[in-house]
């Protein structure tokens, strides 16, 4: 392993390879797998492959804690009082958590420590959701007809045992956006991080393990597709909350029918950024969009607008500023403050991105710059030079499939109607952004695009507002009340007032 990474890793006391089930750490006697660091393709940790057996144990513990334990019925204030010190501890350990996240997925430490994907952000998300504990209320209804004298009211019951399956790109935030609302609602959880990023989540679970949370409320299994599938299909799980690819999301839908599992699916995207001549600055729009594809996680973010729809009158100016932006990109040691970008998470993902780039060239698109693998970066690692495709036909694979990498496709348009049509010409509908100073235009276009979220002159998800996708980008929303809604079931009670 890279000497710097090795010495940082050695100083951290996290103990990989264990499962946390029913309030106990379990030294796993079954299969194991290696986590590979994308900065140097060396082993950074060895973890338990929980498989069906580990998942059975974890679901049984979560089931027991839900069916027989105090958590679902605990007074709201007590639930909140148990969560609050956990959140404070995460704030205290935010630097360590940021370090682990960087060791996990190569996110430059400057982002892991200070951006919206930081340890602090993880605590902020948990804090927001803990605030809901004593605000989850039902409704009362006026008498509807004279034929009965029944008073109707509703409760919000926790949905039950939750299987939470995470993607790899922002493990700290992803943990919080799933565990936070589940616990606030009174659910119990079996959580599985991505097989690519176990370190930061293991540390978070250690913090939960040291708290006053009753045994079995949070359970933690590690593993890959086999373990994920065991959790998604388990008859003891009432709800699956999943973040990942649309392909795996579709598999989860197909196995969830047996016991009518509730589903929240946060899946992929092919979002459009639309730049109008009325944009405040074409340079700023180009720098933002190319920057989202080239810095931070190198385009490996679900909401990244990877299709730039640019008015023909400003197209060349946009391309010029995008090509200037990539000159700022620096690859290398993620703990060096000069490093701007993360490596591609795995060799398999490098191959997938390269294959999609090749398909673009074969189908007649033109690379303005980038797209080649950079194998001369000290320390090795998976690096692809940020790329901009021109002469893109909307029917090409590069305009339709998610890269989840550092590639932007620029497509010109001539009218607002054409921009809307191009933006909607996608099987995905996750996010997007409109660059214009004409607020009426911004609102018109925002309302016309089929997407779960969209920004006018900027977009980022936050803990207290809903985020999620339409079409192939998923089911349900995360953030704010929408999360609580998704982790609770409405129970209607009728009281006969005639006694
Ligand atoms: P992935 O679908 O390959 O894996 C996600 C998780 O699913 C992992 O934990 C994996 O082990 C597990 N898994 C794999 N096969 C499974 C199966 N058959 N049953 C159950 N679980 C299984 O995705 P990834 O590469 O980790 O993440 C990248 C994808 O996630 C991209 O498509 C990206 O757009 C999406 N993403 C979406 C959001 C969002 O909020 N919408 C956020 C981040 C990432």
From TrEMBL:
<feature type="domain" description="Aldehyde dehydrogenase">
    <location>
        <begin position="25"/>
        <end position="493"/>
    </location>
</feature>
<dbReference type="InterPro" id="IPR016161">
    <property type="entry name" value="Ald_DH/histidinol_DH"/>
</dbReference>
<feature type="active site">
    <location>
        <position position="266"/>
    </location>
</feature>
<dbReference type="Pfam" id="PF00171">
    <property type="entry name" value="Aldedh"/>
</dbReference>
<dbReference type="GO" id="GO:0016620">
    <property type="term" value="F:oxidoreductase activity, acting on the aldehyde or oxo group of donors, NAD or NADP as acceptor"/>
</dbReference>
<dbReference type="InterPro" id="IPR016163">
    <property type="entry name" value="Ald_DH_C"/>
</dbReference>
<comment type="similarity">
    <text>Belongs to the aldehyde dehydrogenase family.</text>
</comment>
<dbReference type="InterPro" id="IPR015590">
    <property type="entry name" value="Aldehyde_DH_dom"/>
</dbReference>
<dbReference type="InterPro" id="IPR029510">
    <property type="entry name" value="Ald_DH_CS_GLU"/>
</dbReference>
<protein>
    <submittedName>
        <fullName>Aldehyde dehydrogenase</fullName>
    </submittedName>
</protein>
<keyword id="KW-0560">Oxidoreductase</keyword>
<dbReference type="InterPro" id="IPR016162">
    <property type="entry name" value="Ald_DH_N"/>
</dbReference>
């Amino acid at each position: 392993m890279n000497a710097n990474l090795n010495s940082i890793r050695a100083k951290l006391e996290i103990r990989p390879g264990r499962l946390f089930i029913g309030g106990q750490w379990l030294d796993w006697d079954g299969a194991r797998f290696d986590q590979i660091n994308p900065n140097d393709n060396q082993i950074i940790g060895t973890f338990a492959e929980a498989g069906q057996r580990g998942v059975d144990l974890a679901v049984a513990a979560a089931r027991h804690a839900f069916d027989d334990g105090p958590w679902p019925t605990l007074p709201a204030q007590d639930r909140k009082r148990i969560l609050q010190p956990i959140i404070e501890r995460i704030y205290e350990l935010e630097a360590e958590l940021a370090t682990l996240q960087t060791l996990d997925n190569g996110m430059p430490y400057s982002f892991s420590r200070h951006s919206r994907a930081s340890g602090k952000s993880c605590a902020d998300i948990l804090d927001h959701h803990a605030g809901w504990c004593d605000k989850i209320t039902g409704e009362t209804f006026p008498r509807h007809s004279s034929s009965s004298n029944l008073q109707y009211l509703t409760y919000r019951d926790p949905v039950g045992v939750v299987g939470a399956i995470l993607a790899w790109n922002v493990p700290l935030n992803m943990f919080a956006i799933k565990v936070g609302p589940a616990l606030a609602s009174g659910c119990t959880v079996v959580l599985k991080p991505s097989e690519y990023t176990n370190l930061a989540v293991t540390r978070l679970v250690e913090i939960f393990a040291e708290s006053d949370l009753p045994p079995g409320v949070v359970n933690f299994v590690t593993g890959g597709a086999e373990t994920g599938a065991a959790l998604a299909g388990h008859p003891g799980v009432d709800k699956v909350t999943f973040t990942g690819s649309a392909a795996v999301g579709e598999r989860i839908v197909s196995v969830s029918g047996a016991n009518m599992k509730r589903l929240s699916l946060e899946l992929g995207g092919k979002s459009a950024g639309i730049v109008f001549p009325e944009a405040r600055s074409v340079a700023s729009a180009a720098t933002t969009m190319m920057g989202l594809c080239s810095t931070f996680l190198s385009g490996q973010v679900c909401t990244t607008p990877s299709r730039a729809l640019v008015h023909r009158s400003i197209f060349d100016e946009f391309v010029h500023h995008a090509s200037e932006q990539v000159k700022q990109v620096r690859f290398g040691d993620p703990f060096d403050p000069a490093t701007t970008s993360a490596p591609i998470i795995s060799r398999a993902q490098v191959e997938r991105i390269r294959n999609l780039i090749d398909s673009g060239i074969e189908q007649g698109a033109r690379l303005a710059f980038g797209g080649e693998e950079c194998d001369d970066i000290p320390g090795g690692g998976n690096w692809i030079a940020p790329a901009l495709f021109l002469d893109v036909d909307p029917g090409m694979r590069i305009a339709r499939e998610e890269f989840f990498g550092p590639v932007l496709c620029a497509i010109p348009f001539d009218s607002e109607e054409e921009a809307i049509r191009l933006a909607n010409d996608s099987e995905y509908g996750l996010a997007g952004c409109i660059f214009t100073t004409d607020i009426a235009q911004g609102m018109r276009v925002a309302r016309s695009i089929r997407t779960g979220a969209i920004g006018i002159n900027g977009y980022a998800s936050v803990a207290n507002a809903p985020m999620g996708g339409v079409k192939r980008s998923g089911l349900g929303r995360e953030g704010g009340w929408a999360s609580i809604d998704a982790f609770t079931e409405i129970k209607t009670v009728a009281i006969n007032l005639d006694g």
